[in-house]
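Q&A FORM
Asked by: J.P.
Topic: structure of GNAT family N-acetyltransferase

PROVIDED:
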Amino acid sequence: MPSERTEVQVRPGIEGDLEALTDLYNHYVRETPITFDTAIFTPEERRPWLLSHPEDGPYRLMVATDTDSQEILGYATSSPFRPKPAYATSVEVTIYLRPDAAGRGVGTLLYKSLFEALSGEDLHRAYAGIAQPNEASVRLHERFGFRHVGTYREVGRKFGRYWDVAWYERDL
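REPLIED BY: S.T.
REPLY: Here is the structure written out as tokens.
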């Protein structure tokens, strides 16, 4: 019987990942309230997002791949928290996993790599908004030192209903 354990490599995202990353994200757009985007993207529409996450600086894209197949299992990003200059030392972080990669430690590896990459940057806080309910994401963020700071009630409407978003923060 094959093992569920997959050898995983985490590396910065590259332009060659664009199609696979778009497909992964579109799953969450179509099937879940985890993202509040409501229309799927083409890879070309997602290109500016990918290019806004260079290999250095405060805005990163880390990709987890299966070391054998090189298939993308998930990704984590740090992005601007808000556009005004005084927010420059804060980032919003997010993580998306292929559904079959959940519960296998991939998210932990991604966040470990992301926070190590950010450790030398001029950053003060990381924030994460988690559409509710999402216990797996809450547990992951709490393991990385995030603490709940508040919940926006019924802040997004998708699939004909309203969703809450719980906000978490951690020091960097």
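FOLLOW-UP: The radius of gyration is 16 Å.
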